[in-house]
Amino acid sequence: MAGAIPMDASTAQPAARPMRADARRNHDRLVGEARRSFAEHGTDASLEDIARRAGVGIGTLYRHFPNRDALMNAVFQEALCSLLDRSRELAAAEAPCRALVDWLGAIVTHAGEYRGLAHSLMSASRDETSALVQCHLPLREAGAGLLRRAQESGSVRDDVSIDDLLQLTNAIALAAEQSPDDPELADRLLRLTLRGLK
To answer: Which UniProt keywords apply (predicted)?
Structure first.
């Protein structure tokens, strides 16, 4: 193409340098403390308290995680891997619709571990600049595969979209979070979802 400037090594993005040992320790302490704080106080837990409990200053926290969503993304990577593994296990299930709903139930269970997570994931699905998109996109892709299989089997309507299902799943998690005295609510709402999908 005329006028194009060839890309050379000087214009390529530099590879990320590995963290120094002390930086890696700080990072790991921050993630561990954030996981505990989010489980105990919800995802709006004080970042200053998380830094203090991790034994670092707030500036160190922000050097590793420029905002709350970035810290939440780091905390939820382990759970994300578990949900993606579960989607692969269910990909060959004999009942594709049941497999899809089981997987959505696993998302509800995970979101229920951290008050405020369902709301944050709902917001991230509409905000491409959020660090939580790194959680949302792989979940969306995994769920789309399960949904496609269920639709191809004829057990789920063709007009159902994975985006709607994930929003519905987060809404169920949010409803369950708001009703801690009704531990069966999420299961009942998921069963209603199953009926509506067919």
So the answer is: DNA-binding, Transcription, Transcription regulation
